[in-house]
């Protein structure tokens, strides 16, 4: 797995600017296939998660979680995925993530998954996360330092 600036190949169709500033490459594992011979639908959410945590590292959310011993961190409120093309084995995929909306305590991240085998986008989705205080069991505002890092990384793509 690697983290880099936009690494979608030349010719990647990106009409909505989905190729975000954090992109990771992941190989498709044989065990991720279902009985029909394509990647099981739940695996795409894991790919989103892997890219999301690389993004958390870039904007300081992962450091905040470590500093606070896991007492404060994101929690998922919603996940959606639009599957475009079935992915098989062997293949490698690039998963890109960017923040498209930033609220007081919530953020919306957009993912795009590109297949090396298909040379195309195979899935797109969104994740809504909420910064959460696990001790108080309630949402908490996103810190100014994290907000600034998000604006620096993804500012041009955001709606808020």
Top keywords for this entry?
4-hydroxybenzoyl-CoA_TE, disordered N terminus, HotDog_dom_sf, six-stranded antiparallel β-sheet, 160 residues, alpha+beta, 3 helices, Thiol Ester Dehydrase, Chain A
Protein model, in words:
Pfam families: 4HBT_2. This protein is α+β, with helices and mostly antiparallel strands and 160 residues long. It has a single domain, classed as Hotdog Thioesterase (Thiol Ester Dehydrase, Chain A). It is built from three helices and six strands. It has helices at residues 41-59, 61-67, 144-154, and strands at residues 22-27, 72-83, 92-102, 106-115, 120-133, 138-139. Strands 1, 2, 3, 4, 5 and 6 form a six-stranded antiparallel β-sheet that branches. The protein is elongated. The relative contact order is 0.22.
In short:
Helices cover 23% and strands 34% of the residues. The protein contains three helices and six strands, in the order E-H-H-E-E-E-E-E-H.
Number of domains: 1
The CATH architecture can be given as: Roll
CATH-defined fold name: Thiol Ester Dehydrase, Chain A
Highest-level CATH class:
Alpha Beta
Mean pLDDT figure: 90
> Strand tally, please?
6
Major β-sheet annotation: 6 strands, antiparallel
End-to-end separation in angstroms reads: 31 Å
CATH superfamily, by name, is: Hotdog Thioesterase
Topology as a string of helices (H) and strands (E):
EHHEEEEEH
Structural class computed from helices and strand pairing: alpha+beta
Shape: elongated
Using only C-alpha atoms, the radius of gyration works out to 16 Å
Level of helix content?
A: 10-25%
Q: Helical segment tally? A: 3
**Poorly predicted residue ranges:** 1-7, 10-16
Percent strand equals 25-35%
Protein name: 1,4-dihydroxy-2-naphthoyl-CoA hydrolase
EC number: 3.1.2.28
Keywords: Hydrolase
GO molecular function, one term: fatty acyl-CoA hydrolase activity
